[in-house]
Specification:
The chain has 744 residues and is an alpha+beta fold. 45% of the residues lie in helices and 23% in strands.
């Protein structure tokens, strides 16, 4: 207190020096107008709120003691006075009012100015230590409060009481209160920043977000939610969430049943099966520390572009863009269904005769118009369950109800008659004829492949023997049936005789040209026929049940080979292994993979398992199986993507890392707008889901350039390397890498 006494002495000396009358109550020179005070109060609103709170605490703690607590800004201007009625009246009698600015020159010795000039701790002036006599019966205490972060002085808080109430405890109490005020101001500043950050995150979120309390009353609702749901904040906040018809019922289900919604598609404004907008909706309960539900958090985002992209993709996958007819893939699916249902029908292959002449005469664009008209003419005579598809080029395939060879004869005759009317284009009448081959279900085949092959064989027979006719398939046209029986017998012995071998085709990073992996491809080294493609013997293995033995052999052999390469010190890359549908359908697959990895000592991150898109159609099996495999640490890719019918909603749930574009699309991207559109769509869709994309079957530089321009991540194909034996990959790896770099 010695330092305080020195301050008081210096100020009292100053007052005498300027001739201030100690017997007279001073008159301040500066009292701010009410409007100026209101402005200051609005700026100090939070500070006033906090200091008033603690000032009232002091009054409560010193109940019965006459007190006046004054709060000023950093310039000494009174902003607030709190105290009992008697002290407030006395203060007003002395001229102490809101807006009065304390200065030593006007008011003499006072704790407010002393605290501002020497903001080191609590200041006290008691009795005759005051310069003015009217304060000699008073004890005054004052202290500044600061912004704890910047240490900027914000103002003062002072206590005035009768001299008989003076006590050192008041100084201690004042210090404690100021400390509490400053801590509270820090908390308020932090809360303000958190609130601002929260609002920034809410209002700049790409998701619409809302939260509710336990009664379903909306507490938060961001700008994006306004846009997506079409209702303003003022219409929603404080109202029951049930009033939001699109999501209200689901949010209430979360509250009442503790449900959780994850990735639910909500169609907005659906007209004629085409929604104006599609939202992806999530909602889950908010729990307190005791695990009790206290509300709901819901979010939703606009996936209309992805939805439209998927719809377009699904259309392109199953339809021919030029004729708008179903394509070969769609027809095969329908053909398979017909066989499963035991229907009687005919498969009809049609190839237009001498259509090249049409294209040469009117051009390919007009030729495509004639193809479309041709398809439309054929479609007019079809029954409700019949189907016509474009097989490619000038080829059409039909599925038509047919009970007998006599029915097939009548169908063939009707088709020939439909070609008699010419197609007119640019002043020309084109009389188009067709070579037609017909295969009857069961009689000429019991599988889709057999019926398609046999109808195509009959069509080729018709074309070779004069065109403009139909031919019913006969066994004499197909000498391959006997060969298939012999092949099956050889396959049963192939694994034991080490005739099954693995070749490896490099996968290349499209940006860097680095070999980042290889795909293991199984081949049959037949002692008489040489290398047999898997397209020939894998279907036979599946048909005969040999596929399970073959699958397990491939898994073991590839993992052992990869571990050997690692031990040899070869560069790091992964190996991709194709799973068969039988293998993926097995519940023991994850255990088998884990056992092989543990036995071989191969780290799981070097293994990539490839499944086809159609394998995922059994979603209830696919989702848990993929999760188990992914949990082992192996990578998962969907092979031949684009040839099946994967749902976007399910793709988001599958634990996969890559989509592999089927080579049938890559081979035609230079010529077919439909295929190039599909490729671009797949790349965009995959990236929107956070997946990498690899294209297989890249055979030339133009295909590579197209894929590079549209953001494909990885490629493989004969342009870089054909599949090669393990020994050749070992000896030529660095040379192969250099050759790939030279081509890039």
């Amino acid at each position: 207190m010695k330092a305080t006494a020195q301050y008081i002495t210096e100020v009292n000396d100053f007052c005498r020096k300027i001739g201030m009358n100690s017997e007279k109550i001073p008159t301040p020179t500066t009292i701010f107008a009410n409007e100026d005070i209101e402005t200051a109060l609005s700026e100090y609103e939070e500070i006033i709120f906090v200091t008033r709170f603690f000032a009232e605490k002091i009054i409560q703690q010193l109940a019965g003691v006459s007190l006046l607590i004054t709060i000023t800004d950093q310039n000494g201007t009174i902003l607030e006075m709190v105290g009992n009625a008697l002290m407030k009246r006395e203060a007003q009698g002395l001229g102490f009012v809101r807006g009065l600015q304390f200065t030593v020159k006007d008011m003499g010795t006072n704790v407010i100015n002393l605290a501002l000039e020497h903001p080191l701790g609590a200041i006290e002036i008691v009795g005759d230590a005051h310069y003015h006599r009217y304060l000699h019966k008073s004890a005054c205490y004052g202290m500044v409060f600061k912004n704890p972060i910047t240490q900027e002085v914000l103002g003062t808080i002072s206590i005035m009481t009768d001299i008989g109430n003076q006590h050192p405890m008041i100084t201690t109490m004042l210090s404690t209160v100021v400390d509490a005020i400053e801590r509270e101001l820090v908390l308020q500043e932090q809360n303000k920043k958190l609130h601002v950050l929260h609002q920034v995150m809410m209002d700049n979120n790409h998701y619409g977000v809302l939260t509710t309390d336990l009664d379903g009353i909306v507490l938060e609702y961001n700008i994006r939610a306004e846009i997506l749901l079409g209702k303003k904040c003022r219409q929603v906040l404080g109202k029951p969430v049930s009033e939001l018809e699109l999501i209200g019922s689901r949010v209430n289900e979360v509250l009442t049943e503790k449900k959780r919604f994850d990735g639910i598609q909500i169609m907005v404004g659906q007209e004629q099966e085409q929604p104006q907008q599609v939202l992806l909706f999530d909602a889950f309960p908010i729990y307190d520390d005791s695990s009790g539900v206290i509300g709901v958090f819901a979010q939703f985002r606009d996936i209309t572009d992805i939805y439209d992209m998927q719809k377009r993709f699904q259309y392109l996958v199953s339809h021919d863009e030029q004729t708008e007819l179903p394509n070969r893939r769609h027809l095969i699916e329908k053909l398979t269904v017909f066989l499963e249902q035991g229907r009687s029908f005919a498969v009809i292959h049609m190839n237009l005769d001498r259509f090249k002449l049409v294209n040469d005469t009117v051009g390919h664009v007009k030729g495509d118009v004639i193809l479309k008209k041709f398809g439309q003419r054929l479609a007019k005579g079809l029954g409700a369950s019949d189907l016509i598809a474009r097989g490619g080029g000038d080829e059409f395939i039909m599925l038509i109800a047919c009970e007998s060879r006599a029915d097939a004869q009548r169908i063939g005759e009707c088709l020939l008659k439909s070609f008699r009317e010419p197609f007119r284009m640019q002043g020309y009448d084109f009389h188009i004829t067709a070579s037609i081959g017909i295969a009857i279900s069961v009689e000429n085949g019991t599988t889709a492949d057999e019926l398609l092959i046999n109808s195509n064989t009959a069509m080729s027979y018709a074309k070779k023997n004069g065109k403009n006719q139909f031919v019913l398939y006969a066994d004499k046209m197909n000498p391959q049936a006997h060969a298939k029986i012999l092949l099956e017998a050889s396959l049963r012995k192939a694994i034991d005789k080490d005739e099954i071998v693995l070749y490896y085709q490099p996968k290349v990073d499209i940006k860097t040209g680095a070999i980042i992996g290889v795909e293991a491809l199984v081949r049959w080294k037949h002692p008489e026929k040489g290398i047999i493609s898997p397209d020939e013997f894998i279907p036979l293995a599946e048909e005969t049940g040999l596929i399970a033995q073959l699958d397990e052999w491939v898994l073991w052999t590839v993992c052992k080979q990869k571990k050997k390469w690692q031990d040899m010190g070869m560069p790091s890359f992964n190996v991709a292994i194709n799973l068969s549908s039988n293998q993926f359908a097995s519940d023991t697959l994850p255990d088998l993979v884990q056992s092989i990895l543990q036995t071989t000592g191969l780290a799981p991150e070097y293994v990539e398992l490839e499944i086809t898109e159609t394998m995922t159609m059994d979603v209830e099996h696919a989702i848990p199986t993929l999760k188990k495999l992914s949990a082992l640490g192996v990578k998962i890719s969907i092979d031949d993507f684009g040839t099946g019918y994967s749902s976007m909603n399910y793709l988001t749930k599958f634990a996969i890392d890559r989509l592999k574009i089927d080579q049938s699309f890559i081979s035609n991207i230079e010529k077919s707008k439909s295929d190039s559109d599909i490729v671009v769509t797949i790349i965009r869709m995959a990236h929107s889901l956070g997946l990498k994309v690899i294209a297989e079957g890249v055979e030339n530089e133009k295909q590579l350039q197209f894929l590079h321009e549209h953001g494909c991540d990885e490629v493989q194909g004969y342009f870089f390397s054909k599949p090669i034996a393990a020994e050749e990959l070992e000896t030529r790896f660095l040379q192969l890498q250099q050759e790939i770099n030279d081509k890039k």
